[in-house]
Amino acid sequence: MTDINLGGFTARLDPSRCIQSTSEKMSIRYHHYENVRFKDFVAGLLRRPLRRRAQPERQPRPRAAADFRPNASAGVIKVKRLFECLNSFLSERIMVVADVGDALFGAADIFIHHSTEFLGPAYYASMGFAIPASVGAQLANPKFRPLVLVGDGAFQMTGLELSTVARYGLNPIVILLNNGGYGTERPMQDGPYNDLWCWQYHRLPDVLGAGRGYDVKSEKELHDALSAAKEDTGTFHLLNVHLGPLDRSPALQRLAERLAKKI
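Given the sequence above, the corresponding structure tokens read:
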């Protein structure tokens, strides 16, 4: 039970009507039972004549326009426009791996072809997930090419796992959302502790001796870099996408506003 999976604790669950089961114990209402194995609990549920409640029909959201046309007169790339561009780039051979922050919340507007083509650490909200996860994802299913979405804060934790990517000849396309700091924290409680030392991320391939890097500051540069990455499948591509420090997706803005009230 965390603030993430309970919507900032807006889901007010009644303990007297809850059953919780983990790998170590189980709770039914206010009673706790130790050493109950989760698989035994599930096996018991399957033997019970339980009926599913009817679920309301949900209308699928319309897919964004397939063609993205860069705005030559636009200044700094907006988060919304970034994800619109990514939507037009995705194909059935692309798997999205999203890290914590706007990499995850902004990805809520991405159209995924199949449910198995999106990986994210939403439950634990563990920063630094995406780069290492892309290694496991591509080794497990080489027919998919990972599109990795990661913020600069998360990248500074585990981004050097691109060395492992290079070692095994993998070819993810890494979209680094560079807003100069911890963008999830700023709307909740801002201060200089949210700022990061700005690396020249696009030059990391020079350090590793593999991959291609792009310093992306406009919609046209974003479009061109993605096109180049799509054509070159022989190595990884790292796009250092510069964003405004206070720009964020609508989903992250809603969450941040709710959490800010509890700080």
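The chain has a mean pLDDT of 89. Try to locate this feature in the token string yourself.
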